[in-house]
Design goal:
The chain has 619 residues and is α+β, with helices and mostly antiparallel strands. The chain has four domains: 191 residues, 2-Layer Sandwich (Heat Shock Protein 90), CATH 3.30.565.10; 127 residues, 2-Layer Sandwich (Ribosomal Protein S5, domain 2); 164 residues, 2-Layer Sandwich (formyl-coa transferase, domain 3), CATH 3.30.1540; 80 residues, MutL, C-terminal domain, regulatory subdomain (Ribosomal Protein S8, Chain: A, domain 1, 2-Layer Sandwich). Helices cover 36% and strands 22% of the residues. It contains 19 helices and 24 strands. It has an eight-stranded mixed beta sheet.
Length: 619
């Protein structure tokens, strides 16, 4: 007797439905995506008991005639694709032809549809995958689908559903994604006869975000000016530096209108923000990526949550550069917030006895140019190489001639001088009032009161100085008494061979030592570990995740941040007025002046309006 048998059509449909329909939110997702593909301008979703009892989706899309209505209930019947070649360039949200038959096979399913201009529509009732009747319907043009008693014929799946409130939250999350991804469509969500929200169609994304989350978050977002690069268009909104969440719940990315999850894009977002985020935090993003459908594969999973890219490295580079440019634009807005167009004079009063300054006679005489605290010569800090880094053997480190290097150095120096001069002019827009609590610098600008965390500000200054020096001079390396050998796979070996110069500059003395084997004779001086081979493997894995345009000095940035933190001015360090002015000038000359290396803000603006509200002068 044969042990292999064909499953019945009903059982096969239920097995297939398990891949597509995981919970009520999956039903809502598939039905709403079909409505969007049908050109709907308004979509209403009504659920009961978290969608377990009933889910109804009504749209005003193109509708279907009777033949199409019957055919759409067959597995793999779709209007989205025709041949296998169409799978290489999918431009619609749905295409597999599995959603409707899957939903119909695990629920009591009713489909009512009517084309615009048709005299009558079609109504179809399906119970557990079996058609009960087909008759004329008189509903408005569009499509209405109701799925009741979800998983009533699959008790094993039904018992794994969560509580009604949990399932409702998943449905609301799915509706949030669709509403954000398609602001030009109006959405209505009703849960147990209670209106959750009614979103009108809007012309821009920020209005939809404001409708969904309120005005608080909308004010904390930066708009991405459409960024184009060889077939990739990026637009949307990202959080300002310092605006973050402990989870990725508000890290939303759409690719060709589809909300997706992809580790490559997560890495790109993190890298784009870099030190503008606190460790363990995730950025707030509403990112829309438009690209050639042939360059992205959405046919990875039946639920269509995951995608693959033909060239993920290039996409990551593009996203990183887009985020960086947007943050740079955000810096201009940040400066407008703190720096007025006028140039008020620096307050020359002696406020030390009033607001936290020590009396003048207790301060040592420190020249602002030779300050022991705000020194510009970092040669005494512990990152100064005491042992020469390993020479990068036969691989050239630069293609520039000495003259070119000299010219480049002059150009960099002139740019730095121009930036310092600009920073001095910006610093003059503040009026220094005093120091609060021996830590917070109080200043006045055109908008109101500005508080500066002198420790965080000095951390940022030291961090960028040390990082710059590290990139120029390389990471100090420590020779090993006994060289080590490491055996790697073909792909890792090829990557190491192509990046030997970078690894040498990072203080890792490594060279080829035979097929798949590399010799290590030096390690970064500041890396303390009892397992050097494991350290090298971790370094290589971390570097492979970074962008090719990213500084390879990322290895030492944690050490740089810790060093900057130790050497920055502390809460009880007194700074004289020239030192405070120098601190603000140096901060304004930084690349990311608005946050310390750990992502904390360096400045806080308290407007006159806020102060007047606190004192009851305004409502």
């Amino acid at each position: 007797m044969s042990r292999i048998q064909l499953l019945s059509e009903q059982v096969a449909s239920q097995v297939a439905a398990g891949e597509v329909i995981e919970r009520p939110a999956s039903v809502v997702k598939e039905l709403v995506e079909n409505s969007i593909d049908a050109g709907a301008k308004k979509i209403e979703v009504m659920i009961r008991r978290g969608g377990i009892s009933s889910i109804r989706v009504v749209d005003d899309g193109c509708g279907m005639d009777r033949d199409d209505a019957l055919l759409c209930l067959e597995r793999h019947a779709t209007s989205k694709i025709r041949t296998g070649h169409d799978l290489a360039s999918i431009s619609t949200l749905g295409f597999r032809g599995e959603a409707l038959p899957s939903i119909a096979s695990v629920s009591r399913f009713t489909l009512t549809t009517r084309e615009p201009g048709a005299l009558a529509g079609t109504e179809i009732l399906v119970n557990g995958g079996k058609i009960e009747y087909v008759r004329d319907g008189g509903d408005a043009p569009g499509t209405q689908i109701e799925a009741r008693s979800l998983f009533y014929n699959l008790p094993a799946r039904r018992k794994f559903l969560r509580t009604e409130s949990t399932e409702s939250s998943h449905v609301e999350h799915q509706m949030h994604l669709q509403a954000i991804g398609h602001p030009e469509i109006g959405f209505v969500l009703v849960n147990d006869e209670r209106l959750i929200y009614q979103l009108p169609a809007v012309t821009n994304l920020i209005d939809r975000i404001r409708d969904l989350t309120g005005g608080g978050l909308a004010h904390e977002l930066l708009e991405i000016q459409e960024y184009q690069a060889d077939g990739i268009l990026i637009r949307g909104l990202i959080g300002k530096p310092g605006v973050s969440r402990s989870t990725r719940s508000q890290q939303i990315i759409f690719v060709n209108g589809r909300a997706v999850e992809n580790s490559t894009m997560n890495y790109a977002l993190r890298e784009g923000y870099h030190t503008a985020l606190m460790k363990g935090q995730h950025p707030v993003t509403f990112l829309f990526i438009e690209m050639d459908p042939a360059a992205v594969d959405v046919n990875v999973h039946p639920a269509k949550r995951e995608v693959r890219f033909r060239n993920p490295g290039y996409l990551r580079e593009t996203m990183v550069e887009c985020i960086r440019q947007t943050i740079e634009t955000g810096r201009s807005r940040w400066e407008k917030t703190f720096i007025s167009s006028s140039t008020p004079t620096v307050d020359r009063r002696d406020p030390r006895s009033e607001i936290g300054f020590p009396p003048p006679e207790t301060l040592p005489l420190i020249d602002s140019q030779e300050s022991m605290i705000l020194r510009r010569d970092w040669s005494s800090l512990p990152l100064q190489p005491s042992i020469p880094a390993p020479s990068p053997s036969p691989h050239p480190t630069s293609d520039f001639s000495a003259d070119q290097s000299k010219n480049e150095g002059s150009e960099i120096q002139s740019l730095k001088s121009a930036r310092d001069q600009q920073a001095r002019l910006k610093a003059e827009n503040f009026k220094i009032l005093g120091v609060l609590g021996k830590l917070y610098l109080l200043m006045e600008n055109e908008l109101g009161l500005v508080l500066v965390d002198q420790h965080a500000a000095h951390e940022r200054i030291l961090f960028e100085e040390l990082k710059r020096r590290m990139e120029d001079q390389g990471v100090p390396g420590q020779r090993l008494l006994m060289p080590l050998t490491i055996l790697v796979g073909p792909r890792d070996g090829d990557w190491i061979q192509q990046n030997l110069v970078t690894l040498h500059k990072m203080g890792i003395g490594i060279e080829s030592f035979g097929a798949g084997t590399f010799k290590i004779d030096a390690l970064p001086q500041f890396m303390q570990t009892g397992e050097p081979l494991q350290l090298v493997r971790e370094i290589i894995d971390e570097l492979r995740q970074t962008s090719t345009t990213t500084s390879k000095m990322r290895l030492g940035e944690d050490v740089i941040a810790s060093t900057a933190c130790r050497h920055a001015v502390k809460a009880n360090d007194y700074l004289r007025e020239p030192e405070l002015v120098k601190l603000i000038q140096d901060l304004m000359a930084c690349e990311l002046p608005y946050c310390c290396p750990h992502g904390r803000p360096t400045m806080i603006q308290i407007s006159y309006l806020e102060l007047e509200k606190k004192f009851g002068r305004k409502a």
